[in-house]
Amino acid sequence: MSHLLSFINVVNFKRQISKIRCMEKSKEELDKEILLVAEKIKALRLKAGFTSYETFAFTNDINRVQYYRIEKGQNITLKTLIKVLKIHNLTLQEFFKDLE
User: Fold this and answer.
1) Is residue 70 part of a domain?
2) Buried (b) or exposed (e) across 9-47, using 16+ Cβ within 10 A?
């Protein structure tokens, strides 16, 4: 009976390790997608003629630190994303349609 319990514990342990690895891979994939969004937002700013994120943020009434974090892929809410896209006259659909 103790061998069976040991075997079950090993199987459960291996399943947990497998789940953790899967979650880490998903996190890495998610981080890559977040960086793609951040890079596209930065590209929109540059295309609009703003070489400085600070000037863009000030001109468009966005907190400077918050906007810095957005371009670095650190923090963004849907509300802020929509606000930034409205500044660039884009909808969510237009923004995400060619993002891959």
Assistant:
1) yes
2) eeeeeeeeeeeeeeeeeeeeeeeeeeeebbeebbebbee
